[in-house]
Amino acid sequence: GWSLKTAFSAGPDATVIYYGRVSATEAEMAQLKTPLMGHFGTLDKGINPKMVGAFQQSLRNAGKDNLLKTYWYTANHAFANPTGGRYDEDDAALALARTLTFFESYLRV
Predict the structure, then answer these.
(1) Are 95 and 18 in contact (CB under 8 A)?
(2) Residue 78, phi-psi category: left (phi > 0), alpha (psi -120 to 50), beta (remainder)
(3) Which helix (H) or strand (E) holds 15?
(4) Of 26, 30, 41, 50, which is the most buried if we count CB atoms within 10 A?
(5) What is the gyration radius of the CA atoms in the chain, in angstroms?
């Protein structure tokens, strides 16, 4: 969620959301220019397909649906946190590889 808030307020070159809460106002959507990547777990009860789907619809409504690339993992919330009980090594590694490729595409060095 913090990554998305940063995308709205600071406009970084690229933003990756790891199972963060996704929602936005129409005003925030109108200003969004940052490419987004989202990693979400299908077993997450709070940040679930319904929430992400509503966010995707908001992007479509704002004409910005091309900004979000979404990946789903058969995993729970915090699946990429190695210090937590829900850590999934395989999904975390895949999410990291996808993140690094995404950043290589958008970040300026």
Answers:
(1) yes
(2) left
(3) strand 15-18
(4) 41
(5) 14
Alpha helices by DSSP H, 62-107: 89-106
Single-letter residue type at 34: T
On whether the pTM is more than 0.85, the answer is: yes
Q: Which residues contact 9 (CB under 8 A, 6 or more apart)?
A: none
- Ranges of beta strands (E only) in 24-80 are 36-41, 68-73
Reduced DSSP (H G I as helix, E B as strand, rest coil) percent helix, strand, coil of the chain, to 5: 45, 15, 40
Q: What is the DSSP code (8-state) at residue 14?
A: -
User: Partners of 71 in the beta sheet?
Assistant: 39
| Residue whose C-alpha is closest to residue 97's, from 60, 76, 71 | 71
Q: Which residues pair with 41 in a beta bridge?
A: 73
Q: What is residue 66's DSSP assignment?
A: G
